[in-house]
């Protein structure tokens, strides 16, 4: 198959202009996100816009994003705090969603530090080293099954999803039979907060997940095991432990971040290598798997922005004053293509060095599971392309369906053929 560069990876031409004000949740923006990023970087690095019903300022340049991500004095994750109100505040959300919005990703220090200190031990190099052999064996088993199936397979369902889903379930001490409860309860987030999927999640999947996690917590209190949840239950820092609600929120967060982000990182890395045969050959001929993972995070990462931030005072970026109380969205996908920082940013180059991308964010909210995601993706790529060096896309890249989720780059499926 001749690889044709699809429209979504084509740089913005001179005549391109986005619909202003931007709506990053619109189909037009999602399908042309990189062209939109290119235009914003050059013409409106700080722009007013919205993400569905949320309105705010979207920032695209690397240095501006770094400023917001690292500035804990002028920027907060707590909306009420920026508005000068008491309490945690934030947008009104249905009860079942509160665990997602009340987790440590939406807290500031010292509360954020407290929660992070209680969970970080599960992601230390020593802890991750113990998982390496299990991930190696898992990828081999999955590839054995894929080869036996033959013909065209969906790499996401057959490979990209089972690796992190199995790993996080085992890390949590959840049985194989119970893992679907986790998957159904949180996977709707990547498909967007709308329609019947949201209604089903609110009325069924999330309440069911909440009840299950609380039963699991009770069971682990009675009979702790060698898993993250047992460690979180017993973890103590300066006499402080997680409450049950905090434990539930942490499980929601780690489950969501632990399998979905990695699933699509593996998927996007494979897609980029299939679309850039010369880079695949380079990876296979040398020691460039780590570079492949990093360049995928920069060039075609699954997460294109951070959660909402809020200005606690007027902040000037690229000549634009963002008023106190405003919502700010750092566009990581745009920052990672900023020509002021990256040479030839529109080229996928696995030998790129340095590569100080923002794929896992920066500052105090740098992704705590970044090392695990990197390890899983490295192992997945190595085994896949050692087993199937001539793997090929079974469809034209332009036929791949992107999930209609704002500021994410996630595919419905990735049909491939083993050769």
Task: Give a structural overview.
The protein is of the alpha+beta class and 419 residues long. The chain has a single domain, classed as Cytochrome P450 (Cytochrome p450), CATH 1.10.630.10. It contains 18 helices and eleven strands. The chain has a six-stranded mixed beta sheet. It has a three-stranded antiparallel beta sheet with strand order 5-11-10. Helix 16 packs across helix 18 (370-387). The relative contact order is 0.18. The mean pLDDT is 87.
Overall 3D form = globular
Written as H for each helix and E for each strand, in order along the chain, the element string is EHHEEHEHHHHEHHHHHHHHHEEEEHHEE
Secondary-structure arrangement, i.e. CATH architecture: Orthogonal Bundle
Number of strands: 11
What's the rounded overall pLDDT mean? 87
What class do helices, strands and sheet pairing give?
Answer: alpha+beta
Give, in spatial order, the strands making up the sheet with the most strands.
1-2-3-9-6-4
Key attributes of the depicted protein:
alpha+beta; 419 residues; Cytochrome p450; globular; 3-stranded antiparallel β-sheet; 49% helix
Question: Can you lay out the helices and strands and say which pair or pack?
Answer:
Layout: E1 22-23, H1 27-31, H2 33-43, E2 46-51, E3 54-59, H3 62-70, E4 75-76, H4 79-82, H5 98-101, H6 111-119, H7 125-149, E5 152-154, H8 155-160, H9 162-172, H10 179-186, H11 188-191, H12 195-222, H13 228-234, H14 244-275, H15 277-285, H16 289-300, E6 309-311, E7 315-317, E8 320-322, E9 327-330, H17 332-335, H18 370-387, E10 392-393, E11 415-417
Parallel strand pairs: 1-2, 3-9
Antiparallel strand pairs: 2-3, 4-6, 5-11, 6-9, 7-8, 10-11
């Amino acid at each position: 198959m001749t690889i044709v560069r699809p429209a979504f990876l084509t740089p913005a031409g001179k005549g391109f202009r986005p619909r202003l004000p931007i709506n990053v949740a619109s189909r037009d923006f999602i399908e042309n996100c990189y062209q939109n990023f290119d235009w914003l970087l050059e013409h409106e690095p700080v722009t007013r816009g919205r993400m569905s019903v949320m309105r705010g300022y979207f920032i695209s340049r690397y240095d501006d994003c770094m400023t917001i991500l690292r500035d804990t004095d002028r920027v907060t994750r707590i909306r009420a705090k920026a508005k000068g109100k008491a309490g945690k505040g934030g947008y009104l959300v249905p009860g079942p969603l509160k665990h997602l919005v009340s987790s440590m990703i939406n807290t500031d220090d010292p509360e954020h530090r407290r929660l992070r200190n209680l969970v970080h031990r599960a992601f230390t190099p020593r802890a991750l080293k113990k998982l390496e052999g299990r991930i190696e064996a898992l990828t081999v088993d999955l590839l054995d099954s894929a080869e036996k199936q033959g013909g065209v397979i969906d790499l996401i369902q057959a490979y990209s999803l089972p690796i992190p889903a199995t790993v996080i379930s085992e890390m949590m001490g959840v049985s194989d039979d119970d893992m679907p409860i986790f998957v159904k309860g949180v996977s709707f987030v990547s498909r967007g907060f709308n329609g019947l999927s949201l209604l089903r999640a609110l009325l069924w999947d999330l309440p069911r997940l909440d009840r299950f996690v609380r039963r699991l917590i009770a069971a682990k209190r009675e009979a702790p095991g060698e898993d993250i949840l047992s460690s979180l239950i017993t973890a103590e820092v300066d006499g402080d432990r997680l409450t049950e609600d905090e434990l539930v929120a942490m499980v929601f967060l780690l489950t969501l971040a632990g399998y979905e982000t990695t699933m699509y990182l593996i998927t996007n890395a494979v897609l980029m290598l299939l679309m850039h045969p010369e880079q695949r050959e380079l990876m296979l001929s040398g020691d460039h798997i780590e570079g492949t993972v990093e360049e995928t995070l920069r060039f075609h990462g699954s997460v294109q922005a951070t959660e909402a931030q809020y200005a606690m005072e007027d902040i000037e970026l690229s000549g634009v004053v963002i008023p106190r109380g405003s919502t700010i969205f750092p566009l990581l996908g745009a920052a990672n293509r900023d020509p002021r920082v990256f040479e030839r940013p529109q080229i996928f180059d696995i030998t790129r060095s340095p590569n100080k991308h923002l794929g896992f964010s920066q500052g105090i909210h740098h992704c705590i599971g970044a090392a695990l995601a990197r390890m899983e993706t490295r192992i997945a790529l190595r085994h896949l392309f050692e087993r199937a060096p001539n793997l090929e896309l079974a469809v034209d890249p332009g036929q791949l369906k992107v999930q209609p989720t704002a500021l994410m780059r996630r595919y419905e499926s990735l049909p491939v053929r083993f050769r």
